Amino acid sequence: MSATQAIMAAPILTAGLALSFLGTSRQKLAAHPVLIYWALFVTGVFSFCLVAAAGEHLGPLLPIFTFACSATCGIAWLLTRSLFRPDGGRWPVVLVVVLYLTGFVLDLNADAPANMVTGIVSNIFTLISSTVLLLPLFEPLEGLRKNLPAEERTFRKRFVAGYALLFTAAVVLQREVAEFTVLDSMVIKVTCAVFAVAGASIAVRYRLFHPLPAGSSRQQSRRTPLEADHRLGARITQHLEGEQLFTNPEIKVADLAAVLGEPDYKVSQAITGALGYPNFNRLINHHRIGQAKAMLGDEHHADQSILSVAMECGFGSIGPFNRAFKEETGMTPGAYRTAARSGELQTA
Questions:
Q1: Of 40, 136, 220, 223, which is least surrounded by CB within 10 A?
Q2: From which residue to which does any coiled coil extend (predicted)?
């Protein structure tokens, strides 16, 4: 495939990747903030590829597509924040809107005679855009704490590695390799743009099926619970206790949200705000330990092994059960059973 053909194929590949994502994730395509930024990012990349492929042949549509791709780096940053820090405030959105408008005006006046004002604005725009382009590398690292689930930590590391690879190819290589022609540089850019859409779609799909662990965002933990959070918190407790959903060892926030008919992030907010738990796992383990305490203190379960009790309460193995039990009660399950049988403590 020639360089020209590769550029011409880029818009088609971008649209195909977007449609593929929509098809494979349709069961999760509810109202979710990350989907808005994903759609804007895909639109920006598609517009960039279309302008690269067709250029002046777009006629009166050229300004529209030029505007759509004038600050795609900013949308990439907002998309990354929505994946890892969804409650990061409004100022990033304002900054990206300013970048969009500035970039669009500069593109429209690209052929106008240069002057000091446009030169200064252009330099500032380039500086800020370059900075924003680097920010997605740091957003996942900001929340890379030791108490994050291993799966979430792996996801963040892979995201950073993938973005770093694309950044190196799209920005560093095509600037440092002198023998690249303008056409070669454009091929690198559109190729990286298509891969960026693929990577972003994979990351968004992961987040839709694996919601951000509750409490992993500093802003989220500072949020003041609303009355709606307290009502939802009461419903969460009712369903967990009434239907014993916690006995499912594979239960996730998304599963509980589906039962409640609420978005994942609202359930997480109710758990960390109204109910006061650090995260979803601590909530589930609290209910599991509550049932385990009742079973260990009940003479009808006197012959049941501690492993069996752990499995029946929703733990997948004895290790996590022992750690969670001691963290909540200050005792091992065996010591608790002995104390309960001797009447030294209340088992309720």
A1: 223
A2: none
